[in-house]
Amino acid sequence: MHPVRFLIFLFFLIQQASLAAHAAGLLRDADIEHSLAQIAQPVLSAAGLSSNQIKILVVNDNSLNAFVADSQHIFLNVGLILKLGEVGMLQAVIAHEAAHIANGHLARRTSNFGTSKTAAGLGMLLAAATALSGNSDAAAGIALGTNSTAQRLFFTHTRAEEAAADQSGIRYMVRADIDPQAAVELLNIFEGQDMLSPSRQDPYARSHPRSRDRNRTIKNLVSIQKKTFEPDLNAQYWFKRAKGKLSAFIRSPKWTFQTLDDEQADDIRLMRKAVAYFRRSDLPRAKKALEAVIKLRPDDGYIYDLYGEILLKSRAPKQSIQAYQTAVSLVPENGIILGGLGRALLADGRAKSALPVLEKARSVDFGDTRVLRDLALAYAKTNQTGMASLVTAERYALQGRIGDALIHSKRAEGLLPKGSGPWKRAMDIQNRAASQK
Question: How much is the pTM?
Fold first, then answer.
């Protein structure tokens, strides 16, 4: 079954279970996701997991949380990344979540709930299936959009699972030459959470039940390590880069300027300065800072991606296209960067050129709903109104806007060749919507 059709089928199952359909969004940024992949790679390898198959995604939420909802993604909240003081603490989080995957906790839970009509069963099924179909955006959206009771049901691990993940996580860190003392420092952040009422606890504390005994066990595991650990300068750099870029976009420009001197890496400091100037609508200074970064890192496609984004949002599409084209030449298979190039081409009135770029972006990264929006526009501007209606219907279905999805799927049905693949996708949306009545 086509991944879109499978996804929509499961989405309607969720609707039948009356789960809340509003989606907490992912923060998709090529540079940040690449940085997190560099940080996670030694941990995942130590866990016997493929860093090419497990993606680290950022949830646009300021609370402290991290979780896994399937065997291919680890989700980190913005708030948690910004809270952690050094890369080892983030690697401790990743090691713990990777342990849940490696130890088969999710597989057993999916098996237990697979045929259940409970919110937990359907929520886990959807998260796993959407990830397998490539739509991590929808997976995270549905997972985070459930009510708090359902969240606890399928995100909270048992104490036995947590204890096993603690031990495995420490083992992975040692195997990866990461000082496990960072795991103890991470625990200190959540110290005392068990004493608070659930409404006042951080989400991480609610979904990762702890106890004094478990905390004591972790500290004992760390204390018996006799190995000497050398700092991982590569991981430190990517942690500072991800955190620096996140904070520059999320916190006020004033705060960014006040903390620039705290950053020792020239390229990260200049990148943060560029973002702060951009957010103050000072494009000349933003460009000057980015051009200085490019001189330091001329082969870094992610810097050109940022340059393209800032130029596009500053209404300079022609310059933006040039920056994105360079980014694509340096990082050719990144769906987010391809989507940016397609968006810039659309903004410059070049829909025909944008269409194949956006189609490739979608094939590489199915989960970016921005690409679906832009792809629909490109189809419309090239007089492929049936495909435009279909892609719009699919985007609305993934966002839970079933009424809008139904309207556009009916429009697509009348415009697409009967019996074709796209026509069948339009009919799937209608059939699932009809099943709700």
Answer: 0.82
Residue given tokens 């390229």 in the structure block: 267
Sign of CA dihedral 283, 285, 289, 294: positive
Maximal CA-CA distance, the chain: 70
| DSSP assignment of 254-301 | HHHHHTGGG---HHHHHHHHHHHHHHTT-HHHHHHHHHHHHHH-TT-H
Phi, psi (deg, nearest 5) at residue 67: -165, 165
Residue with structure tokens 């980190």? Answer: 76
Please give the residue range of the domain that contains residue 286.
244-434
CATH number assigned to the domain comprising residue 63 = 3.30.2010.10
42: its two tokens = 């030694």
pLDDT on residue 390 = 94
Q: How confident is the model at residue 383, as a pLDDT? A: 97
Q: 277-308 pLDDT, tens per residue?
A: 999 999 999 999 999 999 999 999 999 999 99
Give the type of residue at 355. L
d(CA 139, CA 305): 26
Last residue in a domain, options 188, 223, 258:
223
Q: What is the pLDDT of residue 26?
A: 80
